[in-house]
Amino acid sequence: MKTIIEPFRIKSVEPLRMTSVSEREALLKKANYNLFSLKSDDVLIDLLTDSGTSAMSTRQWAGIQMGDESYAGSPSFYRFEQALKELAPFKHIIPTHQGRAAEKILFSILADNKQDFIIPNNTHFDTTRANIEATGSQALDLVAKQGLDPQLDLPFKGDMDLMRLRDLLETKGEQVPIVMLTITNNSGGGQPVSMANIRQTKALCDEFNKPLFLDACRFAENAYFIKQREAGYQDKTPKEIVQEIFSYADGMTMSAKKDALVNMGGWLALNDDDLAMKARNVLILTEGFPTYGGLSGRDLEAMAVGLEEIVEEDYLNYRIGSTAYFGNALDRMGIPIVKPVGGHAVYIDARAMLPHIPPSQYPGQALAIEMYRLGGIRGCEIGTVMFGQQPDGSEKLAAMDLVRMAIPRRVYTQSHIDYCIECLAEVNANKNKLRGVDISWQPPMLRHFTCHFTPK
Ligand code: F0G
């Protein structure tokens, strides 16, 4: 049977506010056509991010009631620690308020006033890159070539380019404190990394005596792709695959807002005693005491339960199936998307879809605006608006102009997804009428959050 059955039923509902096209046209004008400036009450289907937008389960809400708010040594911390060690048995587990806090702590203790470090990754996420660069070090992307071609349909487009990694370690090894791998590769379209590539990256790290750290925000989605696509894993459970993935790592940074199914949370985990001591010292200054980090006891309880639920096969089957269902429907209509469909999001190649809008007129933004105008759907431009602004005020076209539609976990049903598909069919049918936009005002940096647009 083809219908995707959500492996849950709904006990508590959150009403969506319906708006008309003309209301949304007025709301867009008021927001200066920047979708970040909309009130979320005015959005029907919010696909801005999959981060912190998950629906919690009855067991997680029950966990919230069990939260123990002791300053030191809370049982909630030990329950969280045990749940994580079941999947990732790192010696030191350090809770933080979200992923970027873990990154900030890790890179600040690694850098230790040295300015010439290089940290390689398949592709650094923005906050990871920014936290590395803030220490004066270099964040280097070494994703395998296939990961850079949006149209290539290959199973593991998140893999690390092992030749280039070897070359880096041979020529500049003394500048590399750790090697990172992001699973799944968000900035590369939510593409997974194969177990073979994780294993070979670890072998290379061992050869050069470097620790391997995973940016593991979407580890369960990555494990499910391995089960579906990599020989030898079909009969393993997602949990067993996750355990094998982490057995190759010396540490991890985590945003629990993704694959720990909570609305806020994260951690840094690692085996090295000396680094852990330094990390805890920074943690106490910036986040909190080591048994709560930046979190309440109740948050730790919800994460502990989330870590059990995220590796359930029925959940992952629905999750990966539903994202693929969305993306494949767009593909069949001839809408160009990043292929194959990733785990947490569908990415439309707006530059290819709207060739009559030059990249300097932001086809990604034009498409995102139209999706909201017509259907109340909020996606996110990932292209020249987001990356084009240079420190000297000039503009450089981004490599691609994409629109990301990220799917919150356990929030929308298949009929919500069907509605999105219908809306995009209509956008696609009238795409030649779409016009580009100008940026009429922008701040000096990170312009995509607040800049103003005017339609052409
Ligand atoms: N690493 C990756 C791969 C991420 O996707 C994110 C967040 C982070 C680190 C940072 O985690 O938000 O908890 O501080 N990604 C979100 C997104 C924001 O929309 O893709 P955080």
Structural features, described:
The strands form five sheets. Strands 2-8-7-6-5 form a five-stranded mixed β-sheet. β5, α7 and β6 form a beta-alpha-beta unit. α4 runs parallel beside α5. The protein is globular, with a radius of gyration of 22 Å. It has 16 helices and 14 strands. The protein folds into two domains: 174 residues, Aspartate Aminotransferase, domain 1; 252 residues, Type I PLP-dependent aspartate aminotransferase-like (Major domain) (Aspartate Aminotransferase, domain 2, 3-Layer(aba) Sandwich), CATH 3.40.640. It is an alpha/beta fold and 456 residues long. Ligand F0G binds next to α4 and α5.
Brief synopsis:
The chain is α/β, with parallel strands linked by helices and 456 residues long. The chain has 16 helices and 14 strands. α8 packs across α12.
Q: In whole angstroms, how far apart are the ends?
A: 46 Å
Helix count?
A: 16
Approximately how much beta-strand content do the residues carry?
Answer: 5-15%
- In CATH terms, what is the architecture of the largest domain? 3-Layer(aba) Sandwich
Bound molecules: ligand F0G
Q: Whole-number average pLDDT? A: 96
| Amount of helix | 25-40%
Radius of gyration: 22 Å
**CATH class term of the largest domain:** Alpha Beta
Order of helices and strands: HEHHEHEHEHEHEHHEEHHHEHHEEHEHEE
How does the major sheet shape up?
5 strands, mixed
- Give me the count of strands: 14
Would you tell me the structural class of the helices and strands? alpha/beta
Order of strands side by side in the largest beta sheet?
Answer: 2-8-7-6-5
Principal-axes shape call: globular
Query: Which regions contain 5 or more consecutive residues with pLDDT less than 50?
Result: none
CATH superfamily of the largest domain: Type I PLP-dependent aspartate aminotransferase-like (Major domain)
Count of folded domains: 2
CATH topology grouping of the largest domain: Aspartate Aminotransferase, domain 2
